[in-house]
Amino acid sequence: MSLLEIENLTLSIGGASILKGVDLSLEAGEVMAVVGESGSGKSMTALTLMQLLPPGSKTGGRVIFDGQDLLKASEADMLRLRGDDIGMVFQEPMTALNPVKTIGEQVAEGIRWHTRVGRAEAEQRAAAMLDRVGLPQSKFPLSRYPHQLSGGQRQRVVIAIACALNPKLLIADEPTTALDVVLQKQILDLLRDLVEEKRMGLLLISHDLAVVAEMADRITIMRHGEVVEAGETSAILQAKAHAYTKQLAEASAHVPSVRVAAAPKTTPSLATDAPRPLLEVQSLSREYPGRRTGIFSREAPFRAVRDVSFSVGHGQSVALVGRSGCGKSTLARVILALDRPTGGSITFDGQRIDILPDAKLRAARRNMQVVFQDPYGSFDPRHRVERLVSEPLHLLENKPDRDERRTLVETALEEVGLAASDMEKYPHEFSGGQRQRLSIARALITKPKLIVADEPVSALDVSIRAQVLDLFADLNARLGVAYVFITHDLTVARAITDDVLVMHDGEIVERGPTGAILDNPQSDAAKALVAAAPDLDRALAARSRTKRAEALRPISG
Amino acid sequence: MTDAALDQPLPDDGFWRHALRNRSFVIGAVLTLLIATMALVSFFWTPYSVFELAVANRMKGLSAEHWFGTDHFGRDLLSMIMVGARASIAVAVVAVGIGIVLGVPLGCYAAARGGWIDEALMRVNDLVFAFPALLSAVMITAIFGPSATNAIIAIGIFNIPVFARVARAGALSLWPREFILAARAAGKSKGLITVEHILPNIISLLLVQGTIQFALGILAEAGLSYLGLGTQPPMPSWGRMLFDAQTRMMAAPHLALFPGFAIVLTVLGLNLLGDGLRDILDPRLRRVR
Description:
heterodimer; A: 6-stranded mixed β-sheet; B: 11 helices; 71% helix; globular
């Protein structure tokens, strides 16, 4: 009998049908990936298993876990199961831990609750578990607090909590979506090792096929609350029998067609001898004062950006890639004059903007706009689209009147593929991808020469990511906007940029044409990024290699 | 997941359509209007005069002539509550007004500037906070003479740090948000951003705090009046009536019950009004109720 057997599971919340007859089964020691866009019901399936559904939910069908129907289990039974036999790893490591408790306490908590062992023994087991997930006691004692750890380390703690009691089933809901590619690979490797070691069943939820291709034994593809296709990973990914599977597979390695056509472009390299670059950054540094340790003493200042120089020509698009915490977002803010450098200079459109006072930045700001990462956080929820998108019009010398403003907003919305009627709506009425389009419309409305985009697609599903990348590429080709494109994902960089700058620890360690760098990275930082980038074809090749190796190995035990 | 629920278009129709559909707003508005009308009517007409004593009629229970009974001087309780509403509401409204008008800009300014200015402003704030409010109000009225006006000013001063703190905390959590960064990238000054983006987003915090401070204001006025430092007799106020009733609770519980009800209804009405306004003003919450 399978460890987990879901039969014809239905779920409706407040009358809206969320799951429409989901079937899924999982054996012990098996990795099952559930893949789909946001809204496909994959997270809700996981929450149904845990019986952590919002109020007003109605479920139907059967969910047999270890011989017990979870849909009929009492809350007391579920309390026993959650954290003991079923562990869960959440997406956002920043919020999944309690900030006022040490990591030791948080791992030991579950052990003590479920096994009733003493404090000392629970701590001992917690220490062993943290050690197992790669946080050895010598460097990460139990007394650390979450804020003293990086995102990847926190996710390891979350995994330690989930696996502390050797659960039979581990549910990981987008465990790596909030992490950079290098950390993503490390966390996935850790999860795979734990599954093998403890013979757990792993339900791995993701929106990106390429991420799960390497480690899932079987894949279930979901859409609109239904299972579209399910089966053995390599079979599914090779056949791509269903149109939607094909679409998902293509989306994760998407290259906008505009760029394919214009590929052998003039390739303006970074050492450009063009008349005058649009943006010129020279030996730029940004230091933050260290934390205050006493009235007169401070920790050593933190140098987020050190001695960075580069330039961007008109219409050129440059990727700034690096792992999280490498200083790329700080650099973006300094370029946008939202933060001031502590050294070096920035020349934009022939003007030194690093020394201009805020009031004199209007002309520069008009020509330099920004797109942020979080499509939910980048709009004031209280304003309508018309007002939000027209916000930069504030920078024009002669303010347009109401009708002109509406026309401009209309044009901008149409430019990004939205309708003029969307003007009257509020941001919460749009999906993540649409909001990112709004964000681009806002950036475009003053007809800027440069757009700085800070991880503009990393919060989006792969399929939507592809559309937004298309849009960026299209605008570049049509309007000649230059981009500084900040990302940790090389597939994204490859999709739309001419040149790439690799950042590590605040410095630029490698630069050159995107294709050349990605195919043949020289620095360690670039190599790590390239090696960690999820790639469907490579994952498939790796799978068939291990398959063959397994087949050749003599059968033992 | 929630996208499906959000996809239905929002029928868009001004403030009042939303307001009338919001139950707590309607109930709150009715209660508040009722109390306010009562206070206004008392300027022209009350069932009996509150300044004429009729000791023969003292401590009467409820009757057709005196709906709410009479007090220990034989004055009609209903008339007293009507007139008392003036002082209580005026004190609370003006005191909360002083707090909002001075405290909110102060808090927003501190949050926008940051650094040592923020630090200095907030330490001064703490200093005011550290004084026992009622005691200082006693001091102020003792120096400038006991009157309703001085009570208002005294209570109002102690509302300033409360609102400054709430406004600053709300504003601080908004400043690093991306939509604020976007507004800065659009060249807007900190003042303009505060007016356009910060204030609308902290309004719900301020409304909730405002209703709490309003209730506290009525109570503070009652306390000051009890000490003889607020509303001066023979002018009645709800707080004074409550304290007068204190010693006669056993003999005539209605003396305490009616002013108590009046205070509860006013505070409840304002709370509901505040809750309702918060929901109506937030476009994300509009479809919920």
